[in-house]
Amino acid sequence: MRKTILFLLSFSILLGFAACSREPVTAETWRVTELCFESATDYSCEGGGHVRMDVYFIHKQSRDTLIRPAFWDGNNVFRLRFAPTKSGKWTWRSLCPEDSSLNGLSGTILCKDYTGDLAIYRHGFIKAEQGVKYLMHADGTPFFYLGDTHWSMYSEEWESHFRYIVDRRVQQGFTVYQSEPINARFHLEDGRIDADDIAGFQEADAYYRYIADAGLVHANAEFFFSSNLSKTLADDDAALESLSRYWVARFGAFPVLWTLAQEVDNDFYAERWPHHYDLHSNPWIKIANYIHAADAYSHPLSAHQENSVNTSVTGLGTEVKEGWGESAFLSEEVALKAGHNWWAAQWSPPLHETPDPGTIIDYWNSPRPAVNYEGRYCYLWTKDFGSRAQGWISFLSGFCGYGYGAIDIWLYKSTFDADKPSFDGVETISVEDKATPWQVSLEFPSALQMRHLRSFMESFDWWNLVPVIPGDPAFQDKSGAAVCAHTEERYFLYFYAPNTLSGTITGLVPGASAEARWYNPRNGEFHKNEILSVLPDGTLPLPEKPDRQDWVLIIQ
User: Fold this and answer.
1) Residue 4 belongs to what H/E stretch?
2) CA 378 to each of CA 31, 272, 405, 449: distance values in angstroms, whole numbers, following the listed order
3) pLDDT tens per residue across span 384-413
4) Which residue, 1, 124, 146, 204, is CA-closest to 457?
5) What is the 8-class DSSP label of residue 153?
6) Alpha helices for 299-437 (secondary structure H)
7) Is 61 exposed, middle or buried (0-12, 13-18, 19+ CB in 10 A)?
8) DSSP string, 215-255
């Protein structure tokens, strides 16, 4: 009881709820502000999730218009969340044909520029653009995606657990919080927003608010785990639209990315686990359509993909029979309508050899950017080396982001696959390793080394990286496990085989000189520069690694 009271007090303070009022509201750009409405009808018995209330916001100076849905918050209360995209005066007016007491209301929001230090509000929400291979802020500033995985976020105790992790991950350089609504206190499998769901949603508000106030982008999955979508609900378009609008209304004014449940692209492993939909009848396409239609900010939207051995973009690089591995969102026509504009891949590149070129080619050839959203979790299916290596391999293989994950954080108190050892191709993860508690895994060396990864990438124009596809003669690897990418001026190579071998770069100007420098991804330190000479045949022999551990080589 005491824990509940403390939570509710913290929740009320965080959200800053005020009595419903029509007085002018002051706000800052990109920061969520809230309007409260009281209906003449109490919807406690029937539920008010179906009531369709839209609020039209018009910016006086530019005449820009944003339409935001409102949401029912229990009894006769409706709320509207709005994040102004420009400073100045915004006027608003409500439209609600189903409830005359909520229809035709109007007011004003006076917005000033955000003056804080958080990048997500200085540069604006995240967007994706066709043909651009990275995510960016509203003003065009590239966004470095470094995610931490929390599929059961709502299981994390509020005070000494959830908030502590958020604050620590910010200190460690993470920029994204990846969550699923597993173990949430709202239950939407029936397709309705009932009075019983409201307390759970109000709890979720506090989590969303805290993540946003910390300056993190929240890559959140919608509704429930994918296998909980029944055929009855999948066929009920009205219910799916209502749930989608409600989700966007409640959370869409925060800095978010939509990621559509878990492993919904393309058929939830239909070949192995027969489900009620296949690649071509995937109901999550409809859900994406509804979310996108309701979202005034056009937040980047993706479908959490199946493991890359089952699904990629066109199926290239998968291990399934032809026609089974392509994405349900492959078609640009489908993607445009659904707002699907980035890939949330589940790629676990091999740690003992160079990755298969098929997967890299498939994502790189798509006009949509890709994030390696989920891979092996530290001390579940890999250890610190593998967790660190996945990030470097991802960025140098054409992905614009990486989703890190660690035991007891990716899924709190999970026993999934914890009763037997695992092998990642390099190291064995024991049952004892898998029993590591979150307080320890929060400080894993690989988690701290994510700061080195980010600092290194942000020291140059990382968003211009172009992968050298494995097998391309431009880079001839001798180590057996390496990836390579380049910008106009530099090559970046990551060697992770347990030897000191490197390789050669070809096609350079004969006789030219090049500067080589090793970077240690474990401690974030550079070694001294070496001056190399290109051979008469245009080949540049690369220096040997400093030792048998993983290293990054920069060639200028």
Assistant:
1) helix 2-15
2) 34, 26, 6, 13
3) 999 999 999 999 999 999 999 999 999 999
4) 146
5) G
6) 332-338, 357-365, 384-395
7) exposed
8) T-EEEE--SS-GGG--HHHHT-HHHHHHHHHHHHHHHTTSS
- CB distance 11 to 3 below 8 Å: no
Say which CATH superfamily domain 120-462 falls into.
Glycosidases (3.20.20.80)
Nearest-angstrom CA–CA distance, 307 and 372: 11
Separation in Å, CA 212 to CA 147, 170, 176: 14, 11, 10
In the block, tokens 């970077």 appear at 519
Look-up: residue for tokens 């406690």? 44
CB-CB neighbours of 406 under 10 Å? 23
Delimit the domains of the chain by residue range. 20-115, 120-462, 471-555
Sign of the CA dihedral 113, 114, 115, 118? negative
Q: 493 has which bridge partners?
A: 484, 553
Strands (E), 39-124: 54-59, 65-69, 71-72, 77-82, 88-95, 106-112
**123's tokens:** 């540069």
Residues in the chain: 556
Element (H, E) at 212: helix 195-213
Residue partners of 337: CB distance under 8 A and separation at least 6:
289, 292
Q: pTM above the 0.85 mark?
A: yes
Beta strands per DSSP E along 288-339? 304-307
Measure the CA–CA gap between 150 and 408, rounded to whole angstroms: 9
What tokens appear for 357 in the block? 């070129």
- Phi and psi at residue 401, in whole multiples of 5°? -170, 165
State the DSSP H helix or E strand holding residue 505, giving kind and residue range, or none if neither.
Answer: strand 503-505
Which one, of 391, 363, 361, lies nearest residue 375 by Cα?
A: 391
CA distance 107 to 199: 28
Quick one: which of 336, 471, 354, 449 has its CA closest to 402? 449
State the sign of the Cα–Cα–Cα–Cα dihedral 173, 121, 9, 44.
negative
Over the chain (556 residues), what is each successive 10-residue block's mean pLDDT? 39 42 82 97 92 97 96 97 98 96 96 97 98 98 98 92 98 98 94 95 97 98 91 95 98 98 83 72 95 98 95 94 90 96 98 97 98 98 98 98 98 96 98 98 98 97 97 96 96 98 95 96 95 96 97 97
- 20-115: CATH, from 3.20.20.450, 2.60.40.10, 2.30.42.10, 2.160.10.10: 2.60.40.10
Q: How many CB atoms lie within 10 A of CB 239?
A: 18
Closest alpha carbon to 352 in 501, 550, 483, 497: 497
Nearest to 470 by CA among 455, 480, 460, 458: 480
